[in-house]
Amino acid sequence: MNVQRAKEIAASPIMANVSYDGTPIYIQYVDEKNETVQIYPLNQPDKEQNVPVTTLEESK
Asked: Lower Cβ count inside 10 Å, N or C end of the chain?
């Protein structure tokens, strides 16, 4: 995934099917400068982490 698409997903009121390492996630924040995203697994909102935006996958 790229930074622009991650920003679109984060800003959208519609939930997108995005995963990190095979786990469905929610994008909280996109850091354009460092090309990272703050995410958490949908079933574990307390497990926030920052990962490179390129490690995210979107399912259609």
From this structure: C
